[in-house]
Specification:
CATH class of the largest domain: Mainly Alpha
Helix content: over 70%
Strand content: under 5%
Largest sheet: 2 strands, antiparallel
Radius of gyration: 24 Å
CATH topology of the largest domain: MetI-like fold
Strand order of the largest sheet: 1-2
Number of helices: 13
Number of domains: 2
Distance between the termini: 42 Å
Shape: globular
CATH architecture of the largest domain: Orthogonal Bundle
Number of strands: 2
Length: 295
């Protein structure tokens, strides 16, 4: 039989519920309610100010799969993920290995590399927009050219990737650095005794033991890349001829939901994106056992 709570235990339980009630209410209102509201709106033709919604079933999704712009913007998001994620991981990993060694000014270097993470995205975008300027930008001044970094459709996405990689290196470097410091020194000492070279040790000890951190960075990186919105929106001019080449699916959602006031179709777009991210997440989770090694 279940024992009855004593008056003291009951009082502690009530106070505990009172203390966590604000967090629970906040999660319900700010996290869970919007999820169900988005699902409902994706099945409706929405009215003004969120009122007068008309249920239309799967019509928004049927129109979505016939909309070429949805797939072109989704392709742009995938291109950004494919280009930026490997570069970010590689550079972050190399920097983490270097910063994990004993060297003069190591703390200063770590701080410098992490600085982009504490800068506001709007400030980062404005600075890089000035640097990419064709006429008086710093990059063209240093190179001695007049490259149209953000107006040429062939290289505009590369410019966005450069900013994304630069701003994401610091956070991933800290994650890798934490993972490196958790690797026991005994492995490296044993490898040194066996005559293992630095490169051999890196690929056969460091990478396998760091694979849980790499897996986490890959998984969160894919989600972040496919949700890209702020950098193209703030760096690029929406009237530019290069805009279609960098327009992401998250911006398309923003366009329909807030600029065209078609929140039902916008909700369908975001539900479609969530489904794609969920499928990729499941695939990554299934592949985890094949290449991720836990101590």
């Amino acid at each position: 039989m279940k024992k009855k709570m004593t008056p003291r235990q009951r009082t502690e339980a009530i106070w505990g519920l009172c203390l966590i009630a604000p967090t629970i209410i906040g999660l319900l209102i700010l996290n869970y309610y919007p999820i169900f509201e988005t699902v409902w709106q994706s099945l409706c033709k929405t009215g003004d100010f969120g009122k007068g919604n008309t249920f239309i079933g799967l019509t928004n999704f049927i129109n979505l799969f016939q909309d070429k712009e949805v797939f072109s913007t989704l392709f742009n998001s995938f291109k950004y993920a494919v280009l930026s994620l490997p570069l970010t991981i590689f550079i972050s990993l190399v920097l983490a290995v270097l910063m994990n060694r004993k060297m003069h000014g190591r703390t200063v270097y770590r701080t410098i590399y992490f600085l982009p993470m504490v800068c506001a995205p709007a400030a980062i975008a404005m600075v890089w927009k000035w640097m990419f300027n064709q006429d008086y930008g710093l990059l063209n001044h240093l190179i001695g050219t007049k490259i149209s970094w953000v107006t040429d459709p062939t290289i505009a996405l590369i410019a966005i990737v450069v900013v994304g990689v630069w701003s994401g290196i610091g956070n991933n470097m800290i994650l890798f650095l934490g993972g490196l410091q958790d690797i026991p020194k005994d492995y490296y000492e044993a490898a040194s005794v066996d005559g293992s070279t630095g490169i051999h040790t890196f690929f056969h000890i460091t990478i396998p033991l760091l694979s849980p951190t790499i897996f986490f960075v890959v998984q969160t990186g894919v989600m972040g890349a496919l949700n890209l919105f702020d950098l193209p929106y703030m760096i690029m001019d929406q009237s530019s001829r290069a805009w279609p080449s960098v327009k992401t699916i998250t911006y398309l959602f923003y366009e329909y939901a807030f600029e065209r006031s078609n929140r039902g179709y916008g909700a369908a777009i975001i539900m479609f994106l969530i489904a794609i991210i969920s499928i990729i997440t499941v695939i990554l989770q299934k592949s985890e056992k094949k290449w991720v090694h836990y101590n």
